[in-house]
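Worked example

This section walks through a single chain of length 236. The input is the sequence exactly as stored; nothing has been trimmed or padded.
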Amino acid sequence: MKKLKSSSFLGGIVFFFLVIFLIIWGYNTLLSWAQSKNDSPINAVVVHGEFRYLKREELEQKIVQKLDGSFFSLDVVRLQNKIEENPWVYSASIRKEWPRKLHIYVVEQDAFAIWNNDLLLNKFGDVFYANDVKVDDTLARLYGPEGNEKDVLKGYVDMEYLLKLHNFKISELVLSERYAWQVWLKSGIHLNLGRSDKMSRVQRFLDLQPLLVEYGNKKIARVDLRYDIGLAVSWQ
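Given that input, the structure is written out below as tokens.
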């Protein structure tokens, strides 16, 4: 009876150590496999997003060229910063897919207006370069002192909204160095608004424009609204 118990005890110890051995062997095998995958280069980059000016294939090729690590060793933040160096990329985020794939989610810049002829503004008033990309010719042209981009953009949005209610659209808007506003409409009319009360002066033009058309019997060329009361008009 004692021999049977001793044999069972010994068998249990052997089984226990066998299980421990299998666990350690399995762990080392899995670790070795993971390390081999860790050292493997990323072989697929997929770019997601809706693009008007960027080209997906070119963007994917450029991102592949910027890769400088394996699946685990890749510095995601550094790669994200490199992608966002492209002036047409507003933001980028990266997701890894095991074992060798990257998903890049890109938000393209929204070209809202042309700024001082050679730059662009997005809808937040941030300046970026066109980078030799041909943009929409119908974009409004905004001009102003450096650092006043957001103020000019807000002025444009406010005036454009009011003017569109009366079927007018802005083609150019200028904020001078002395902070005086001037507007050119697509219809060819030039509005001189001065430095203050620009919205009320635009409204004054809209209120009187039907009378001006009848009175002059010609196309309006220029309207000077820098007066507290009234305006001055030039016809074509």
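What to look for: The two ends are 123 Å apart (CA to CA).
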